[in-house]
Backbone:
């Protein structure tokens, strides 16, 4: 049944987020965390000690078995409450990656990557300036030389890349990557000689602390390599799909935060003796924002659900979601900013930050533009087979009729 | 749970529609019916004799108890299959009105208004050129004079107004309308002296046969009056809400028809040795059309469901739906027309007709513009109470913390 | 200087149009002409006998030397006054083609194609269902057989194709078309054996009377051939460019007509005791319509002017214009329709017709979509050379500085 | 004549800007100036010593007599070259205000406000958080008390408010403001007791250094008052109109900068062996960006010209411009950001900053929303009188005809 009601599990998840945020999130704190490019470790620890940690942690470390729809609800609500992109999105992604890695890799390496409190000890160094989310364009390279194995290249948009002790590096690798389309994965401590890290100054999303990591002839030891046994491509695809869902959940949460602020302003702000929300132009904006909020909600949870259930249409659902949700979220944030006026353009409100944070998600994890191809092909193929079935059915009906 | 899956009941309804359409609907037939401004009586009778009639008829005449979500699925699928607005939308509306009337009115009058085969014997003469769907602006008037009671005025956009033997006329009535805010309802045979009917040439929707009805000092007999006992306003409101849902279901169906045709053309049409659907600009259009289709689907079924369940948020859901769905449907149809190119602008395809039919629903049953006020007020009030609750909860959490 | 002032010549042209329209155009007449798919011959003759004929006729037949900017002003104003696409657009195009043909072809053939009163005696049978405005995809073919030369194929969207005594047919022609990329041009009387004509039922633009012409082994005589001497491609390109300008001028005129009607309605229509135009949502629409009107005006006249002057950027200007103007015009018409509400969706107003007529121009003479490639390539090339110049200049400035 | 050609004067202005920028503007410098919230004084002095100073300075201080169209060209080009909002926009505004003030005020006060080098010595403290550009809502108040005249209140969005030695404060003033609708103007040194200044952290436009100024019972001396003699309202209106033009010129310049960067990236960036600019989706974006650039160019220069000439339609032209230009500029910048992808979202390119700077101009000097009323009223009135003229003319034509 089509509905906008959340499940009982999702409502529980949201209540857990609220309990956490009621205690730790204030606008002043969030502003401070943006400036310092991260959540302070006390809050970070509290997060993993609270009920919320369970939604992130893998099951063998005490996490609860929970659906993507629940995870999405957690992320959406966290970003809704913060009015900002949070590093927990990346943590959730990395922990899922750990789970994938655990199946193919040596257990002990993986276990080290999580502290008992649930801290993720590595960053995902996958993207490159010229490659975006396209693995085939990776230029960072592993070369086997007489005196050792070496890593050279540059990774970009590595969330938390300066703060995590290790980086999980995706590289071209003609030697070790034979089973995996010429790619391999390595864990590289960032204090290794030859590794340098730089903060990446982005338009928004400061709390995710994106960094550039440079590898200048960094020596690699065999035990740093993550075994992938021909499953790397599948792991990466799953990772991107998951990443898209969580990012879209985050975008939706940001839009809902902007909506709250716009509604509050419409309720509170007086213009010539009337509340702002009595002005028809403002009302029109609010109505069209809510139309988008509804659409986002459906797109995110439908995609999460169809990935959870392993439905065939899950790739279409994810691509449609990624195409539409981040853009809609930015639009909602921009309208909220306009409703707040001058205040919206300053840090006296959070809608400016929300608008900036939203914009990044239109690019991260595959731009709006690349989704189009997958979507159109899938729709065309679906229609072709549907049409064939319908034509046969009609043919039969007409035959019977005669 | 948020989903795009239809219920088993909705799937049954769609299968019933398909069985009917497989037999009676061809593009040539539809074209002909548009020219003759109506469905031929053989098809009309077949409709009410088929399983579909049950979805329209009131229960006491053999109809099945079915939800608005099912009725919406029937209408959406019928319009999807026809690629045109169908008079069955109005029938379904009128039958619901009969049901409302039956509760307050003399049974025998009502019963006469349906033939055994399920034909609706009256048209709804509610709208006026200057009143739209705003009952308070009605100008048609009932006057009590020494020699009788008389009706004067002009009704517009009366679907099937020339074909139904009787018109159900909403009029200002200072005498009989005392309990109903100065309004009363009368059944007026259209062959009565003083009644004249004219076809209304519209941009599209020819099959619904909109007409203008003029009443020039038409004498009214007491038995023509429909008893409303102070419930007229509630009846009309229910009627408009239902009307909005069915019209939006029809718009969604039209958009899906346009989508099918666009996908077929993208699959079949060759441009320089490639199918049209390989062109990225076409793909982009298809993707964005599908995003709208998904949004329409959710908005319609959520509204139908919340009216069915009598939820408090049903007015908001209906207004959001009416604001967004008809516009999105026109946009989808326009993009389909563009994809079909010259062919789309001629009657060699049906997308031109679909585009024209869709456009009318942006105006019918309350324009996009009037929805905005209800939506914004409702959103602002919801937010205000949500905020109060949250602030109290946070206050409590902080107190406990100390 | 950038301005929205028209030139004195353009103002004269508009005054001439107004004098003609004041006399011959009424909404009832226009409605009638749409039904009969053409302007009656009395009006047609009056047009060519009036000052307006001079703007269409070639100079050697008494036409005045006038710029494209003037011609565009004439077409825009005619469509503005009529609120409909008029066949004069096609006449103007055909006469320009005559001029082109005259330079390369035998004079006498050409002269016959215009009556003394200025009637164009032929229709342009260039488009095909699968070819649109793409000459390279033409499928109508001339074949040289032992018993003669024959024409086979089907032309579509031939304006006035049923009413003009002759059709000017563009065909693939491996024998005669050697100098012209395998294409040739033939004048074919439509009463010739093997020629059949059908009206093309379009969504709008009925007055231009689009037709389908079928040629089934039609024998061609040598004197029917138009000499093109290797200049056919240039002739066609010029024709398409001119066609685009006139169609966009017509679109602009249609939009201005819709704007007038919307403003009149906003001034006249009362809602709860206030004029409609006091409602902020209506005001917003009007403002955004005017922004589009201004943009259209600039795009059309800049393109006309740069073609007139033979500027290098004329192809870019034309493509930008064709990309944006017809779409903007449809949007303006759609908003006007919405402002007029129910009335706008019926033939009680002309905005419905305007909306339908506008839509066709988004497809005619090259869809919005095909313009994109020419535009982007041209912008990229311009920028590359501009950048080179700037870099050299900066380099030099910095050298001098040291 | 409608054209996109700039005048010789405008081209000279642009050449002067280029000569200055070639020497002083590099992306590294601009980044640095944004961080330090202003242009360094060496560059500032160089600006006023160069030919460009003449475009800003009033004539009696050596400025050249130049039109608003030239001033707009200067501002547009400066922002185009910088890819950032520059404080020179505010300087130009303040100097025009000086000119207005000079006519009504004591010469000596005014003269002091400019250093010989052309520095503007005061900031415009007009806006308030709750008043925006609406003078009637000003809350800062001048009160006459037994022990003196005092100023209390808070001004917001004061460009350069922390760096200019004096602030020109607009205040409610029941005593001195009698002739000026209860408002008066005062020059207040920012080191006066009771004055405090705070930087205003905005989403963008850091170089204009917006500040909040608080006045806590600041004593005012009579000589601080600017005489306005009943002309304050006219001065402010002129100032807002001028401000709107310069802000829109700046927005247009920013959009052109974003366009350059997008085209460069489309030319340079390789995707799978092809330049990015060969992708149809990118081409579509570029085409639609250019359509907007053309529209902006016309709207700005038409408005500038009609204010220069004192045309009656200048208020309409300005409002249309302010409604459309800043929004279009943000859209162009957003598309450029999308074309640059990840790079566009970081400070490795300037399009992120451009996008942020553009957004502010949708709010500054009157939001998009407030323009709508002036525009619609003006369009409706124009149409009403145009219609009257046309009806009389047609009436006359028809009479003569008979």
Residues:
């Amino acid at each position: 049944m089509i509905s906008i009601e959340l499940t009982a599990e999702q409502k529980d998840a949201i209540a857990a987020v609220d309990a956490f945020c009621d205690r730790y999130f204030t606008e002043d704190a969030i502003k401070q965390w943006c400036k310092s490019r991260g959540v302070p470790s006390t809050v970070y620890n509290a997060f993993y000690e609270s009920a919320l940690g369970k939604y992130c942690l893998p099951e063998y470390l005490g996490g609860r078995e929970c659906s993507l729809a629940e995870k999405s609800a957690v992320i959406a609500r966290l970003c809704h409450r913060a009015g900002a992109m949070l590093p927990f999105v990346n943590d959730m992604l990395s922990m899922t990656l750990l789970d994938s890695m655990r199946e193919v890799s040596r257990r002990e390496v993986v276990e080290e990557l999580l502290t008992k409190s649930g801290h993720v000890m590595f960053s995902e160094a996958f993207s490159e300036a010229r490659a975006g989310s396209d693995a085939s364009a990776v230029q960072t390279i592993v070369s086997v030389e007489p005196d050792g194995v070496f890593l050279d290249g540059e990774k970009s948009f590595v969330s938390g890349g300066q703060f995590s002790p290790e980086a999980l590096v995706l590289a071209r690798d003609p030697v070790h990557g034979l089973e995996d389309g010429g790619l391999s994965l390595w864990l590289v401590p960032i204090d290794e000689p030859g590794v340098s890290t730089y903060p990446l100054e982005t338009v928004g999303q400061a709390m995710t602390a994106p960094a550039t990591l440079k590898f200048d002839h960094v020596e690699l030891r065999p035990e740093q390599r993550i075994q992938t046994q021909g499953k790397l491509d599948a792991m990466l695809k799953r990772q991107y799909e998951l990443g898209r869902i969580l990012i879209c959940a985050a975008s939706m949460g940001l839009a809902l935060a902007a909506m709250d602020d716009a509604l509050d302003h419409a309720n509170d702000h007086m213009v010539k003796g009337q509340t702002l929300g009595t002005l028809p132009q403002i009302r029109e904006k609010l109505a069209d924002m809510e139309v988008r909020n509804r659409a986002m909600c459906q797109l995110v949870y439908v995609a999460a659900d169809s990935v959870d259930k392993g439905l065939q249409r899950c790739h279409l659902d994810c691509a449609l979601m990624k195409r539409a949700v981040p853009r809609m979220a930015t639009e909602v944030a921009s309208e909220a900013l306009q409703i707040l006026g001058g205040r919206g353009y300053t840090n006296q409100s959070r809608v400016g930050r929300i608008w900036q944070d939203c914009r990044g998600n239109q690019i991260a994890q595959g731009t709006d533009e690349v989704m189009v191809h997958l979507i159109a092909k899938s729709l065309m193929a679906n229609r072709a087979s549907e049409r064939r079935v319908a034509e046969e059915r009609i043919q039969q009906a007409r035959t019977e009729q005669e």
User: Anything to note?
Assistant: The CA atoms of residues 323 and 372 of chain D lie 7 Å apart. Chain D has a mean pLDDT of 90. Strands of chain D lie at 122-125, 141-145, 148-159, 166-172, 183-189, 195-199, 210-220, 225-226, 270-271, 274-275. Chain D touches chain B through four residues (CB under 8 Å).
